[in-house]
Q: What sequence folds into this?
């Protein structure tokens, strides 16, 4: 299945920026959190924003991801989207996502065409994360902050749209067992909150 940039715009047109960045929506379906999991972290959730950068290339669309530095306090060594915690000076969660993207991988705010938003999602590390979807030209250069990001890589959007690439695995967190989807692409393991965000993204654009 292939989708163009214009089709992506059309399918995300009905999404809206959340008014409250702490108004989370718990994942549903085969990757649902077990009973009691959200209650353990809900009282300490902090707002955060990430950008899902969709890069436009002549060969089609791809999703840019980062490999986090092994020295970070949260999500060290994991695959994630550029983003981070909301700061007091940020006007809204979109500003947070774009600012963090510029700081982490050097894509300036004016190089991103924001085309949609996903529901705010809680993470086991105590964040309420709002994903912002943005188109980025494939020719835009990156400037990676190595203190936060080890490297970046891209995955064709078509890869995520193919359900054959969705791997259901069993996970455990503080004694609670549940199933989640992962993606494995050319040696890269995309799992946890990032994989859940990708699933939400896919569910919207495949409709």
A:
């Amino acid at each position: 299945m292939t989708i163009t940039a214009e089709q992506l715009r059309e399918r995300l047109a009905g999404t809206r920026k959340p008014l409250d960045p702490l108004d989370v929506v718990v994942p549903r379906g085969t990757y649902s959190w077990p009973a009691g999991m959200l209650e353990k972290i809900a009282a300490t959730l902090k707002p955060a924003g990430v950008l899902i950068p969709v890069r436009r290339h002549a060969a089609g669309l791809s999703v840019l991801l980062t490999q986090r530095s092994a020295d970070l306090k949260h999500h060290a060594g994991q695959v994630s989207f550029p983003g981070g915690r909301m700061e007091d000076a940020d006007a809204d969660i979109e500003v947070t996502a774009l600012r963090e993207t510029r700081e982490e991988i050097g894509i300036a705010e004016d190089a991103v065409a924001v085309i949609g938003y996903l529901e705010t999602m809680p993470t086991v590390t105590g964040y309420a994360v709002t994903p912002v979807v943005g188109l980025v030209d494939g020719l835009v250069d990156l400037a990676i902050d190595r203190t936060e990001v080890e490297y970046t890589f891209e995955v064709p959007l078509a890869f995520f749209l193919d359900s054959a690439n969705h791997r259901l695995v069993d996970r455990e967190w503080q004694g609670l067992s549940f199933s989640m989807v992962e993606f494995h692409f050319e040696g890269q393991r995309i799992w946890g909150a990032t994989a859940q965000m990708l699933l939400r993204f896919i569910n919207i654009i495949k409709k």
Q: What stands out?
A: The chain has one domain: 5-205. Residues 192-205 form the longest helix (14 residues). The two ends are 12 Å apart (CA to CA).
